[in-house]
Amino acid sequence: MKTQVGIVGGGPSGLLLSQLLHRRGIDSVVLEKHTRAHVLARIRAGVLEQGFADLLRLAGCGDRMDHQGEVHEGVNIAHGEDLHRVDLHGLTGGRTVMVYGQTELTRDLYEARDAMGGVVIHEAEDVQPHDLTSDTPYLTYRQGDEVRRVACDFVVGADGFHGVSRKSIPADVLTEYEKVYPFGWLGVLSRTEPVAPELIYARHQRGFALCSLRSRVLSRYYIQVPLTDRPGDWSDEAFWAELKRRLPGHVAARLQTGPSIEKSIAPLRSFVAEPMRYGRLFLAGDAAHIVPPTGAKGLNSAGSDIQYLYHALLDHYERGDDSGLYSYSQKALARIWKAQRFSWWMTSMLHVFPDSPAYDRRLQETELNYLFSSEAGLRSLAENYVGLPY
Ligand code: RFL
Ligand code: PHB
Does the pTM of the predicted model rise above 0.90? Predict the structure, then answer.
């Protein structure tokens, strides 16, 4: 098989890039390790920056999001019994976020790929990039007993944190920066009315909690748990009881509970790999960087990579201009590190760190007290939460 752009990974990053390129007449093949059903069963992000939403519209995939997604003008931060609203709209000159699930937008991207006859090969095993520093790179993969080959001009590694693309960059070229947090998030999806119309991030001495949502009838809640916990350790009753304890009383009193539809634990990690380009391989999204979910920046950071890469590839194919390809890594990383900083800051401010000295806990409280006494502090949070410019 021959194509222009060989994309490893059929998650949101890979699908979005392939869809954007196709609309400009640039051909790609997406190789995805899992089945479509498996990819769509993952419950992940829920909050999209305006820039990401615009990119979906540009890809011709914004209709369902614009009908069913919710535009949020604010988020709340709870601290003990206090609840503070951050007026995102007012503090950022009218910017907002879109609440629309990653599962939904991935489905929209798959449907758009189908409608255009895009090639997405599922259950592609043992995907391997080759000859990345030559002008003729290629990918191989296995389906059943057959090994197939995809020749391409460029390889895009959009295969997530555990993918093969990053691993195919020699160790002496790649620098990895990592920070692992000593806790995870236990997430529950339930067919219940959300406790509040806007998200609530809660700091509590028992641990962090987050009230999020997917629609008026579908709620998504998270609580901070030790890394040693397993989802099976938490009955629905135990989860609801613990969530209630971590919310201000007047919020907890309104909480509607019900059976969980999904329950999973995600460890929290910060990670960046530099550079994001090696020869004709370009990394994008979780393949190159991970943030703890506290700032809602993971998928949105993948979106900024795709935006830069899309324009760089357009310039190459339409104008013979390779400057965007050369500057991709540097440009993408500049924005990535700012999302890393914000996610680390939100995580540090809102979680309980086991064994942290009393001094650090007092500083954490002071961080929140300062935030809610300073318009400059709140504006900084709001500007980052809605998304820094591309
Ligand atoms: P993905 O989604 O991991 O997709 C990569 C795809 O590559 C496939 N793959 C391979 N294919 C071929 N060969 C191989 N060897 C392969 N290895 C892997 C995988 O099967 C998969 O289909 O990466 P992508 O596309 O870069 O997208 C990134 C986002 O998924 C991620 O950043 C977000 O989900 C993070 N995230 C959030 N981001 C936000 O912007 N806002 C949020 O509100 C938000 N909430 C979250 C989150 C992530 C969470 N978890 C579970 C990690 C909440 C949670 C709980
Ligand atoms: C979610 O709805 O899953 C969600 C929302 C905001 C976050 C993280 C996750 O910061």
Answer: yes
